Amino acid sequence: MTFSHSTGTRGARKPGRVVRWFNGLALRRIRRRGGPVLGMRLLALTTVGRRSGAARTTPLAYFHGGPDRWYVVASANGAATNPAWYLNLAARPDEVEIVVDGETVPVRARELHGDERAQVWGRITTSSPQFAKYERATDRHIPVIELTRRDGDAPST
């Protein structure tokens, strides 16, 4: 199944200038040292802009899914619309890379659906309850994205 692109009719405000400022600080830290930022495990997700074709990098909380597998959530803090990085992934799911724990990893993105999403979502909301709050703030179905290392791509640093 593909990306759903669903939007809602209600939700929290999208993150503003303070969050963009924090994202810049978080990206520098992720690229320099990796590790948690303010207690959150973060990765740097680089997508290709669906309209511009330019590289776009966003820090995101992630959840381990096993070797060479990571999960990210397109919550936008519970906003009614999906974040821009999600739309970029939907347009070009095979043109993605992440920096995680100091390693640059080319990945493929896939949105989870049905029972598979429900199982992963349960693990995410158990370990990070704020995501359940985001879900309550909107009537949008919050996408869960699986990132897996692209076949044949060796680890790089």
Supply database-style keywords:
157 residues; Pnp Oxidase, Chain A; alpha+beta; eight-stranded antiparallel beta sheet; 8 strands
What does this molecule look like?
There is one protein chain. Strands 1, 2, 3, 4, 5, 6, 7 and 8 form an eight-stranded antiparallel β-sheet that branches. The chain has four helices and eight strands, in the order H-E-E-E-E-E-H-E-E-H-H-E. The protein is 29% helix and 30% strand. The chain has a single domain (17-149), classed as Pnp Oxidase, Chain A (Roll). Strand 4 and strand 5 (69-73) form a beta hairpin. It has helices spanning 17-32, 84-91, 114-127, 130-137; strands spanning 36-37, 40-48, 55-61, 63-66, 69-73, 96-100, 103-111, 144-149. It has 157 residues and is an alpha+beta fold. The chain starts with 16 loop residues before the first helix and ends in an 8-residue tail after the last strand.
According to CATH, what is the topology? Pnp Oxidase, Chain A
Structural class: alpha+beta
Separation of termini? 32 Å
Largest sheet: 8 strands, antiparallel
Helix content: 25-40%
Low-confidence stretches: none
Counting structural domains, the number is 1
- SSE order, as H and E? HEEEEEHEEHHE
CATH architecture: Roll
Residue share in β-strands:
25-35%
